Amino acid sequence: MTAFLQTLVFGVATGAVISLSAVGLSLSYGVTRFINFSYGEFLTLGAYFTVLGVALGLSLPLAVVLAMVGVGVAGVVLARIFFDPLMDRGFLALLVTSVGLAFVLQNVVRMFAGSNPIRFPLPLMRPWHVGALFVPKVPVLVVVVALLAMVGVHLLLTLTRVGKMMRATSDNPSLARASGISTARVLAATWFLSSAIGALGGVLLAMTQIAVQPVMGWSFLLVVFAAVLLGGIGNPYGAMLGSLVVGLGIELGTTYVSPDYGHAFAFLILVLVLLLRPRGILRGAF
Amino acid sequence: MALLPFLVGLLTLALIYGLLALGLNLQYGVTGLLNFGHVAFFAVGAFTSALLTLPPRGSAAYLQADAHYQIGLGWPVPVGFLLAGVAGGLVALLIGATSVRLSSHYLAIATFAMAEIVRSVLTNADWLTRGEFGISNVPQPLKDTVIPAGVYPYAYLAATAVVVAVLLALTVRLTESPYGRALRAVRDDEVAARSLGKQTPALKLGAFAVGGALAGFAGSLWTHSLGVVHVGQFVPIVTFQVWLAVLMGGSGNAYGALLGSLALMAITQGTRFLGDVPLLSGLTRRNPSFVPSLRFVLIGLLLIGVVRFFPRGILPERPRRPPRNVGRRGSENRLGSAADAGAVGGGVSDDRPSDRPASDRPPSDDGTSDDGRSSEADASADPGALDSSPDREPR
Amino acid sequence: MRRVVVLLAALLTTVALAQSGAIKVGVLLPFTGQYDWVGANVQPVAQMIADEVNHSGGIGGRDIVLVQGDTEGTVDAGFTAAQKLVNVDEVMALLGPTSLSFSGSKQLIQDVGVPMISPTAGTTELDKAGTKYFFRTVPSDSLGGRAIARAATDAQYLGRSQAFTAPVLMVAKSPAMVSFESPLQTSFQSYGTPLKATLEYAPGKPSYRSEVQEALSHHPDVIVLVGTPEDSVRIMQAAFQAGYQGTWFVTQDQTNADFIKLATPQLANGIYGLEEVASPASAARNDAFKKQFKAYSGKDVKIFGTNTYDAMNVLALAMLRSQLKDGQVTRASVTRNIREVADPGAGKVDVTDYASGKKALEAGQEINYQGLVGPIDFDAYGNITAPFAIRQVKDGAWTDVTILPASALQ
User: Fold this and answer.
1) What distances in angstroms separate CA B182 from CA B25, B101, B204, one per listed residue?
2) How far A32 CA sits from the closest chain C CA (Å)?
3) Strand, coil or helix: what is A17?
4) Taking residues A242-268, what's their average pLDDT?
5) pLDDT of residue A231
6) Chain C contact for B132, CB < 8 A?
7) What residue of B is the nearest CA neighbor of C130?
8) Which of B254, C6, C152, C407 is the one with CA 20 to 30 A from C254?
9) Within-domain flag for B52
10) In C, which residues are within 8 Å of A107 by CB distance?
11) Any chain A CB within 8 A of the CB of C343?
């Protein structure tokens, strides 16, 4: 029984790592409406910038914040250059461009940071003991940060003007435009927010997997996509739920089915859910 | 410089990828199916052909090669080839069955996920595939017996070219036939097609199956060209490469698919020569990954550039005139107007008008259509549209 | 536009002319993708040897030039990279490939006949690869697996009072790692302490908590861990956080300073590791190599560094002997001469680096190259055997415990 509870704990932890990146991706997906394969690189950049910041002498939290801002800005700039001109060309043009951009970003990181894995500056910590369960500290930190960030996103979406504009555009783009919402403003805000969240997601990933490598974002992206689609495209709350389901699926599958498959459990769950509910659990924006 | 063998080797691989692109073109370019799981059919075809033709366990060839695989039937390669196509088609049928329920982005990711599941299963079925070890005695037909090893690459290229040419001709025949028109109708306006009595689920499944069979054939050609089969080949990046080939070449156009594959090969392999630029050798000493990474930066930029500046691809879909026995006034006949719409379609800007009638569409219209639009197509395409920016609402 | 073309043509011609005398050696390894660090680790060591050769007059006056062929970690790229190196660059020999990219290039190498030395591919698939062109300066995983089992079950090799009694194996499912599994299982069995459990895990996952939980459910006192450094650290950390008190036995990929840095000395403290070593006396040579490389590149020696040192030295000496004895350097002659310089024989002088090998050859003697990794004597299939050093992390650094001679592995 303990083992089962332990596995559930792991599932929540795994889901938390995915969740932030999934929320960021879902936000941008809802507004931009294309499968962005370069999103994983924002995770990678967030992690690397943080490592760089700490190496330059900044404290970890400050480095993370600066990394988020930096990647947020980078996201807006890159979108301006590469995606905005193609916005009316359809989702495949954007998808292919995003693959090209992913190649560019990942390899720029490799060019300057090299290929060898670099340790993420987080000290080693022994777990807490809660009864018969052990609760490792890093996943708790990840869950706490993820929850705080998601609350922040929720508040932003519901209380702020720009958040409401984003939601309006995501639900009904032409009506939003017709009521005077500037698509350009919303796009920029969406890119900034989703990239910055992605950067933080990358930091959480780096904390979990201890070392950063140029491929880290790209390898993780598929699992994030699974979570986003599971929850319903464009629905950030669905993304949170989807991440939890994926996380639990991976850990339960690894423990009770076979450790050989790794992330494939995420894909299996995704396919099964989509067959039953073709628009995701919480029915996406589109 | 033995440039010729180099080009021969690359051309053979390009033709194999061209065949993959041909299959994907049938699924996406002609029928509008967002299949992101193409590599799974490639994998199944390769393993089928390999396992059917490998020397059986315990045979002289097996022992001599110190092999460890379990299954090998020792059948002739042409049989392996044909059954590879069948296997690819069957798996495509399975995966394609989901397209009845899913569409658009969800289909894209679901097919992607299913291909990854297939790869996981193949990797873990060591008894069948030898997992991460791979199998390396896949027969290369007639090598050393009839055709000397030195000349073999040329002979294999010739054989591949013939096979691809035949399959290309058959595919073009298919897409030019009424069946092909029906497929295009599904792409352009599925509801209209259904309302005219076309069995769209069956048509979609058929397109999946034929495209999958072509990929299966490609798998067979691939494994016999290298003499090995390994699960590590069948990773998602291969699906992306085939998509790039289709889109660069001009989707909807079978010849475009082949051309796109050649263009992609030119980009990926041409950039290998980046390392020969003398200025960069100093940088290699400090960071050996520098030039190889720069190569991929270049590849990424080239791909972005092609998409940006060649929106239709190299060979856009040929304009199609509606068949003579369809009504004179094209706009009255939805199928005909859909065909007209298809005429300016293809390439990297997909212009697929709404596949839902006005009544079925949600009250809002999507300004940024996820399937995009090309200005020429819309006005003529769907007179029923509320504006020129159709929504694509997944079921 | 035309001017660009003309400029490019001039540039390429200059490049071609400048290198027209050079002997090219291809580095057929991944430089991008999941295994990007492999190529990045091998190339600088090879370059160091190449520079040494060139500064001492080259091979008959010709410089050795390294040409990269990025296999990207995929089969197809392994094929196209090999094609370019073999047919366009017309390399004399190849350094590499990895276990996976070998599938893509095997036929080409065999058909064209290019000598190939891999400093990285330990897979048991190559134990009897059968082609005369292929050599490797890394012992097969079948030996490494045996060595681990032997040491773990025999206290004398561990520097402890007792051997381990409850071993569990965790091995990554990737081409480079899987071939440890079978030798480890059979060896532990034959040495009297069968493995309590074998866990194959999917490589490259961000965390392995569930897998570790499964492993710990068997109450191991040692976990034999086969995987990349990053995956190994994740598993070790997950076990640490699960309260695991036992120790670890890792493979050659982890017995280096970088791993301790990645894992932190606290986590790595007390773990055992395997390392290829030529002889008890070769520790001094190993240190000398580390110093030499640090001075050359400013960095520490990384995984496959010593294997590359041996591979490149053998290649360079083979080319030199070919030049001196055969008066020419061709692929076929280099292939022959690889054995001439590496294998033992009556009256041969033992040499341990290029300079001493060159001196002996030019004095008309025959040489037997003794490497850092082992005696570097190739068997019929191009494999080497090596004694292994059993090492342990103490005070944040790998220290020697014992040497496991090849005879102990029978």
Assistant:
1) 15, 20, 10
2) 28
3) helix
4) 91
5) 87
6) yes
7) B65
8) C407
9) yes
10) 32
11) no
What is the tens place of the pLDDT at every residue in B97-110?
877 778 778 888 88
**C84 contact residues in B (CB cutoff 8 A):** 6, 269, 272
Domain that holds residue A103: 19-217
Q: Is residue A263 part of a domain?
A: no
In Å, how far is B2's CA from the nearest CA of chain C?
5
> What is the rounded CA–CA span in Å between residue A260 and residue A272?
20
Residue A43 lies in a domain: yes
Q: Is A283 left (phi over 0), alpha (psi -120 to 50) or beta?
A: left
Question: Would you say residue A124 has pLDDT above 80?
Answer: no
Which of C 289-328 lie inside 8 A of A, CB atoms?
A: 302
Tell me the two tokens of residue B218.
Answer: 């490609």
Q: How far is CA C137 from CA A91, B73, C278, C309, in A?
A: 50, 36, 12, 9
> Is the distance from CB of A64 to CB of A47 less than 8 angstroms?
no
Domain that holds residue B100: 3-235
User: For position A80, what pLDDT does the model report?
Assistant: 94
Q: Measure CA C352 to chain center.
A: 17
Residue B64 in domain: yes
Contacts of A110 in chain B (CB under 8 A): 289, 293
The tens digit of pLDDT for each residue in B264-286 reads 999 999 999 988 887 777 788 88
Count of structural domains within chain A: 1
Q: What's the pLDDT band for A178 if we cut at 50, 70, 90?
A: confident
Are C178 and B132 within 8 A, CB to CB?
yes
Whose tokens are 């050359």? That residue is C296
Specify the 3-state DSSP secondary structure of A157.
Answer: helix
Number of domains in chain B: 1
pTM of the model: 0.87
- Convert the pLDDT of each residue in A11-40 to its tens digit: 998 999 999 999 999 998 888 888 899 999
Three-state secondary structure call for residue C192: coil
Print burial letters for A187-218: b (CB count within 10 Å at least 16), e (below 16): bbbbbbbbbbbbbbbbbbbbbbbbbbbbbbbb
Instruction: Tell me which residues of chain C have a pLDDT lower than 70.
Output: 1-20, 130
Chains B, C: CB contacts within 8 A come to 130
Cβ within 8 Å, pair A10-C33: no
Treating both helix axes as pointing N-terminal to C-terminal, what angle do A216-231 and A91-113 enclose, rounded to 10 degrees? Answer: 150
Question: Domain for residue B388, yes or no?
Answer: no
A chain contacts of residue C210, beta-carbon cutoff 8 Å:
7, 10, 250-251, 254-255, 259
Is B319 inside a domain boundary?
no
Looking at the predicted structure, is the pLDDT value of residue A127 above 90? no
User: Which pair of tokens denotes residue C278?
Assistant: 């030529």
Please report which helix (H) or strand (E) contains residue C273, including its range: strand C272-276
Residue B296 and residue A103: Cβ atoms within 8 Å? yes
d(CA B344, CA B321): 11
Specify if A226 maps to a domain: no
pLDDT band at B376 (very low <50, low <70, confident <90, very high): very low
pLDDT of B341 above 50 = no
Q: Give bridge partners of residue C390 from the DSSP assignment.
A: C274, C402
- By Cβ distance, the residue of C34, C206, C243 closest to A209 is C206
State the smallest CA–CA distance between residue C39 and chain A in angstroms: 9
From residue C167, alpha-carbon distances to C219, C222, C391 in Å are 9, 5, 18
Domain presence at residue A48: yes
Q: Which position has the token pair 């001439």?
A: C340
**ipTM, 2 decimals?**
0.88
Nearest residue of chain A to residue C260 (CA atoms): A119
Distance from CA of C252 to the nearest CA of B (A): 20
Q: What is the pLDDT of residue C88?
A: 94
Give the model's pLDDT for residue B101. Answer: 76
**Alpha-carbon distance values, C324 to C23, C25, C112, C333, C354 (Å):** 15, 19, 24, 11, 15
Candidate from B106, B307, B372 with C-beta closest to A274: B106
